[in-house]
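WARN no homologs supplied; continuing
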Amino acid sequence: MRDRKWAEEKARELVSRMTAEEKASQLRYDAPAIPRLGVPEYNWWNESIHGVARAGTATVFPQTIAFGAIFDEGFIERIADTVSTEGRAKYNEARRHGDRDIYKGLTFWAPNINIFRDPRWGRGQETYGEDPYLTSRLGCAFVRGLQGDGKLLKAAACAKHFAVHSGPEDLRHEFNAVATRKDMAETYLPAFRALVEEAGVEAVMGAYNRTNGEPCCGSPALQSILRGKWGFQGHFVSDCWAIRDFHEHHKVTRNAMESAALALRNGCDVNCGCTYQSLMPALRKGLISEEDLTRSCVRLFTTRFLLGMFGETEWDGLGQKDVDTPENAELATEAARKSIVMLKNDGVLPLRNIASIGVIGPNADSRIALAGNYHGTASRYITPLEGIEDEAWKRGITVRYSLGCTLSSLKDEDLAHEDDRLSEALAVAESSDVVVLVLGLDETLEGEQHDMGNSGWGADKTSLRLPGLQQKLMEAVIGTGKPAVVIIEAGSAVDLNYASEHASAILDAWYPGERGGKAIADILFGECSPSGKLPITFYRTLDGMPEYTDYTMRNRTYRYADDSQVLYPFGFGLSYGTPTVESAEVSDEGGRIIVRATVSADSDMENVLQVYVKDLDSPYAVKNHSLSAFRRLSLRKGEKQEVELEVDRRALLSVDDEGEEKLMGRRYIFSVGFSQPDSISKALMNTSPVLVEYTV
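OK structure emitted
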C-alpha cells in the first residue's frame, strides 16, 4: 500500500531547508541539482505510452490504439508492468553512468486518455479509442502496471491531457475547446476521474488548449474538479511550452511572469518549458507567494521520495539484462496478435492450398509503420513482408513483392513518370494465387504537431482517404481478379468503402509494434484466430459530422452516431468462426448488478464478450447505448462456458444539462454479446447479442 504520508513528511523536511530560489528551480522539468542538500539533478520528462520511448533500445509494443482493440485489462496491466521494468532498468543504468538526461527518469508521461472523438485527430493513435468506459478501464490497468502496488512507486504514471483535448493539432496553442457540462461529465472527464479515484495516478498533465475559456494548465475550474471533487494528491505538469501559450497565443496574460504566476497559483507544479524561469521575478512582484513555491515543491519531492530516489528500492538490481528480452519481444508479438481486427473475410483466410503470394504496398516492408509515434528503438523489427516470407517459405510457398506506390507521393523515383511502380504491382498480382495489399499511414502522416519536443511530422488528417496513389493501387490490384487481402497499418479510421465491397478480406493491424509482421503472418496462415475489436468507429463518410473544431458529441462515436454513417462499428471484429451467447440474465445481488451469460463457439478462438446498457426512460440518456462491461474469453469449439460480469451501478445513471449524474430511469435494456446490438454489427457478425430487460 502506497505510503504517501511518509513521503510527504520527508518532502516537507527537505523543502523546508531550501531557499525560495532553490524551490523555484525544482519546478522546471529539467530541475538542477542542489549539491548542499544532496539533491541530484532530475529531468521529469519521459515517455512510455507503448514502451519506453526516445531512450535507445527498448521493447516496442503495438501503438496504444491497438491496446484499445485488445479489450483486456489484465493483459494491458501486464504490458505496463513490463514497460516499467524496462524503464527502471534503463534508469538504473543511466544513473550508474552519471547520465541524468531527458528521457532517462522514472516519471512517465503516459497514458494518453483523451477521447478519440474525431477520426481526423493525428494523436488519436495514442489513445485507447472513442469510448470513456473502455478508456477508463484500460487506462487504470496501465497505471496499475506502471506504478505497481507496493509502498514505493515502481514508476510514476501521468494521465494526459487534462481535460478536453483532441485536436485540431495546428490550433492547439490558441484553441478554446467549448464543451457543455453534459459532454464534459459524460464523455471527456470520466477516464480522468477513474485514473485519479481508482488507480491513484501520480501525475496529471494539462493540455495546450483552453477549455471553456480557461487555459488548461492554469484553470481554476479544472483544478476544482481535479483536486476538489476527486481528491487528486499527486503533481500536475504542463504540456511542453503550454504555459508560454498563455501570453503568446491565448492572450490571457501579458507576459511570461504573469503566465508563470497564473499557472503556479492554479496548481501547475512542473513546467515543461522555460516559463517558470520567471517565477522569481513573479515572487518579487508579489504575483505569487513563497508558499505557492513550497506547495508545488513538496508535491514534486513527495513523488521523488515515493519513487525511492533517495534510498534503496527492490528494483535496484534491474539493469541491461532486463531490457529488450526475448520474453518481452514475445509479449509484444502476442499483443499484436490480440489487437488485429478482421473486418471482412469471404473465406480466403486463413490462407490454404496456395503456391504463391503477392505482397504489395507501401507499408508491406516499412519499419516506420510498425512503431506509431512516441516509440523506442527495437533491436529487431519484423515487417509484414518479412513475417509472410518466414511463414510462407516454411510451407514451400513462393512470395513475390512490389512496393506498388509510395506512401503519399506520386512516384518512387524522381525522374520517373507518375505510377512508376504500378505495372510491377500488377505483374506480381497476376502471377500470384492471392494478393496481400499492405496500405495505410505512418507517423509522418498522422501524429502530433511537429515541434522541437517531438519526433513526428504528421499532425491531423484532412480526410479519411488513403494518401497518394494508394486508392488507385488498391483498385487496380483488386481489378486483376485475384483474391485480395487488404491490411491497413494506421492509427485511425480510413476510407474502406471500396475495400469493403471488393476485397476478399480486410485486416486492421494498427501500428503493430516491433514484431508486427510476425503477428500478421500468424493471422493470415491460421496459426491463431483474429480476436481484436474496434475501439473506434469506421465511418462511411464525414458528412453530417460536426466541424472538427466543434466539441459537441452529436453524430460522433458509436454512442451518438446514426447507423447510416457507420461502415464498421465500435466493438466489431470477426474471428475464424462464430461465437454465440446462448442465454443471458441480469440480477441485482446485494446492490451489485451481475450479468451471467452462457457462451459457446463453433471453433477454438479468443473473443470479447461485451455488455451495453440502454436507458429507456431518461430524457438525458445517450442516444444509442454505452459499453458497461467486457471480458476477453478463450473459447473451445463446442464447449459451453458460463461467464459472470459485474456492471457498475454508475452505468444506470444519466447526465443532465448541468453535468450532474443521476438515476433518472427505471427500465433498461442490457445487451450481452460479442458486438454492439446495432443493426450493422448484427449483419456483419451473423449473430445477435441477447437483450435482457432490467428494471430498477
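The chain has a mean pLDDT of 97.
OK
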